[in-house]
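The instructor's notes for this session suggest beginning with a concrete chain rather than abstract definitions. Hand out the sequence below and ask the class to guess, before any prediction is shown, which regions might be ordered.
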Amino acid sequence: MKTPIRGLLATALLCAPLFAAAAPAQLTPEQTFDLYARALLEDDAAATRSLNDALKPAFDGQDSVTPVPGMMAQALAEPWQTVLAVAGVKGNPAAAETMYAKALKASQCRATRSTVEDNEYVDDQKIAKVDFSCQLADLTSVHPLFTASLTSDVQATRTRFTEAYTKALQSGPRKAVTGTLTLYTAKDKSYWYSSNFDDLVGPVLGALAPFEEWIQDVEAAKAPKVTGVPACDLLLQQHRGCVAKIAPDQISGVDAMAEELKAKTQVMSAEEMTQECKALRPMAEMIARAGTAALPDAQVFDLFAQVIVHGDAPAQRALAQYMQGDKGVAIAAALAGVSHLDDAPEMADWPQAAAALRARQASVRCTTDSVQYPHGPDGDSALVDYRCTLPDLMALLPVYRQHPVPFNGPHPPQMAPTLAAAYTQLLADAPDRERNVTLAFERDHGGRWRADPSPLMGTLADAFLPFFEWNEHPPGEDR
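After discussion, reveal the predicted structure:
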């Protein structure tokens, strides 16, 4: 649901040019962070221009940051409209966007300090870990009102929450929300840049619109107490319900999972356990929805993508049940097998790189964007467009040009140590890039859908293991 995805500076930065025309002045990590925050969170056009001017050498003279004005406010306003509708209150989308735009401008996310250290994966380069603090609305007093509104049929209770939330956002007390963003420097150390904005944007959005988190807290409190960690207890409840529907003979696996989580509570803090179980929850919810006798087409298409991209065992079982019979089991297993990119020969002898690949692959989201039925909704063919968030590894290209992977030799293709180290680092920090992929589905006389997974498999492989493609068609060269 990856998921994924800003206040004014009253300083001379807005009054005087930051950079000379011929040689831009070098920004500190703190200055770079502040420009990112102003550009991305506050819709500050001056900061965007200054940041792009500073980073042009890193991006071949092109603008690296192109935020859409109002995009963040709109992203916040959409779930608020849903909350208002559930509460029986008429919403005003334009007013909501204005409210959130003001809250973002007042956020004042600013760097507090930075720590510069060697980049252990790339020689002669540095990284800066920039600590920052934002001033955001303190919704502590609003949380119990939201909880009460979920369980009350009294309109006044719901209205009390919506009014309190609006007041808190507009004029209530504020609290500091902190985080850390990693910046990188080029070899000549003339600029700093970020390759992943989630660590900046995520805490802000989560603090201003925590509704989904609050709902999950309510559900978790109702779950049977197994581990003593509400988020993990909710995960177990959801997973048990899913397995009971799609594979009741494997319910013992849920018991084993419960024992494993209980053991982890002895060595991990409640906060760490909460984060781990919340990260696993989206999968449990999707599989629970899929574990029904008759699935809507959209869920079937999403299930195919989930198995191909992640090879997830519960998703594989759900797809096998949907496909029915031994043939369904075989098809689901074959589709799950293509997800094992870490078994590629390039990963041989590089377990850290393989582990980094698995970790980043787990964050990939491929969801159904649109469906076309050439012969109508009751026909036996469908063209499904998926929108996938995949890592953009183009920053690895300079290293790859110096250490290419040989594919036309007597030995299996393997990465050189320098390339493997850079690849491992970049997988953790590379920005997401949206890619669209179309799969053709077919069925017989309204039966079960099936698809050729090759386009999605190829897109996934090219995103995580672009080396063969770079050899055949070097980026930047005419084909």
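Then share the key points. The first helix runs from residue 29 to 41. The two ends are 36 Å apart (CA to CA).
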